[in-house]
Amino acid sequence: MTVTNYDGILFVSDMDGTLLDGRSQISRENQQALQYFVDHGGLFTIATGRMERSVEPYLPLLPVNAPLILYNGAVIYDPESRRRLFQVGLAEEIRAIVQALMARFPELGIEVYHGERIYFLQKNEETENHKAKEGFVPGLVAMDQLPGPWIKILLSWEPARLAEVEAWLPERPELFRTVYSEPHFLELLPPGVSKGAALQKLVGILGRPDLKTVCMGDNPNDQEMIEVADLGVAVANAHPALQRAADFISGRHDAHAVAEVVERLGRAAFPGWQAYRRDA
To answer: Cross-referenced Gene3D superfamilies, in alphabetical order (predicted)?
Structure first.
């Protein structure tokens, strides 16, 4: 029997490189599959490194019916009430590390997220590409004029140079953790922050400990979420480490991978998923 009742399933998808295709668009196939999923009892949301303003243009195209995981897990946001349900920021001591970064790597792109804005402390080609892709208008200020707290810091450069930056950064786990959200984006997040930790927080906010979670992504910033989920899916274009961590590897992001997962859920076509079947 085909499963047509998705009640009890929370489906969480990464955006860039997963839900969005190579043109940063949502395919009709993905839209229709998600609408079917939600219409038949499922809960759907996104988990992304983006901020509110970079996500909002997509929301009219998506049947989101659960709070969003933003800033790679530093914020859980309810788009209906336009309220942050959870937020954590970096400690003030991070400023000294950023100051040293600016002196050591003057060509490094440095973006700071505060409030609902992005501020450029240093620009390069990657920061300009990021601005064009997500359509935000950055603030341009000196660091001593930049208010806090900072939610996260995004460092951008060509991958080989970012590896140098990563090696230079001090090990200060009490102040920050690092994660790659793209090969050219290295992020500094508050300690303990990840999409996986935010997923667990979200399930608590929903008051549904019985939910079965299905999560999919493409980059190392998705790994904790993939590992925490009841079913973790990596797209075929995902980082090799994420593919190794996943329970299943779907098709590519530009081949309607999200629709493929919804369809497979409907058939319980995943190893072990039969235990979670809910026949209509």
So the answer is: 3.30.1240.10, HAD superfamily/HAD-like
